[in-house]
């Protein structure tokens, strides 16, 4: 499998495409030469502004990442997809001893973890039929380092990262590249709600890193300054253990 992946002329699908990182990825993909993008969003009206801006290149699909049936229905409609970006996710603030922490964890697991599995199960056959393509999962530096205030979110992202590693190996068998993206604080509503608004970087940092990472054949992508600082310390383990060939 050729590790280099050029997005030019490809057909993409982006979940959570109506705002934040997802919207910026859509815009970067269009400027990068992607021919068509499916906007997978819960509320189709929320994508009206993007659709009006790029009417010839965008198609809106109603997808609730926590509902399996909407994801599989979207995969049937978007059967020409080469590149899937699973960006949608939620963050709920909860400390480990909070009364609502288990509920918060279950809700986030349903979206951030189950949603990833549903997306992979639904779109793996589509990607295979279209030559392999690529599957990009938005994880977080929180998948590697938890903090009390959003411990349940970090736990869900750690689970998503673990599954992304397994998907990398399994989907390689059909020629599909997998990427795990680990941003730090990015200037979105989620970062603002988590109290990181003052140090957050712009979302285009993530979009550019995804495009560059696909071209370079990278599995791990740590886009912003805080993420890069963590990568300095983590990369040896990542290269020598996570990305190493499996031992049967």
From TrEMBL:
Keywords: Oxidoreductase. GO terms for molecular function: 3-oxoacyl-[acyl-carrier-protein] reductase (NADPH) activity. Residues 10-189 form the Ketoreductase domain. It is an enzyme of class 1 (oxidoreductase). Its EC number is 1.1.1.100. NCBIfam families: PRK08264.1-6. Belongs to the short-chain dehydrogenases/reductases (SDR) family. PANTHER family: 5-KETO-D-GLUCONATE 5-REDUCTASE, ALCOHOL DEHYDROGENASE, PUTATIVE (AFU_ORTHOLOGUE AFUA_3G03445)-RELATED. This is 3-oxoacyl-(Acyl-carrier protein) reductase.
């Amino acid at each position: 499998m050729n590790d280099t992946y050029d997005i030019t002329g490809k057909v993409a699908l982006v979940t959570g495409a109506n705002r934040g990182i997802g919207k910026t990825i859509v815009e970067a993909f269009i400027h990068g030469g992607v021919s068509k993008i499916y906007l997978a969003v819960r509320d189709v009206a929320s994508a009206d502004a993007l659709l009006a801006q790029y009417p010839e290149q965008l198609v809106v699909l109603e997808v609730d990442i926590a509902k399996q049936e909407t994801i599989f229905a979207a995969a049937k409609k978007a059967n020409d997809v080469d590149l899937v970006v699973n960006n949608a996710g939620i963050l709920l603030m909860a400390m480990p001893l909070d009364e609502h922490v288990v509920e918060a964890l279950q809700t986030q697991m349903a979206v951030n973890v189950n949603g990833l599995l549903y997306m992979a199960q639904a779109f793996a056959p589509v990607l295979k039929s279209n030559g392999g393509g690529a599957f990009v999962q938005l994880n977080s530096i929180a998948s590697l380092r938890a903090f009390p205030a959003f411990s349940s979110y970090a736990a869900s992202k750690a689970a998503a990262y673990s599954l992304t590693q397994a998907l990398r190996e399994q989907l390689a068998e059909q020629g599909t590249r997998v990427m795990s993206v680990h941003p730090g604080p990015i200037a979105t509503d989620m970062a603002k709600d988590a109290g990181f608004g003052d140090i957050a970087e712009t979302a285009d940092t993530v979009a550019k890193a995804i495009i560059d990472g696909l071209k370079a054949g990278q599995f791990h992508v740590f886009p912003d300054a805080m993420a890069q600082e963590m990568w300095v310390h983590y990369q040896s383990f990542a290269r020598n253990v996570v990305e190493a060939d499996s031992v049967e």
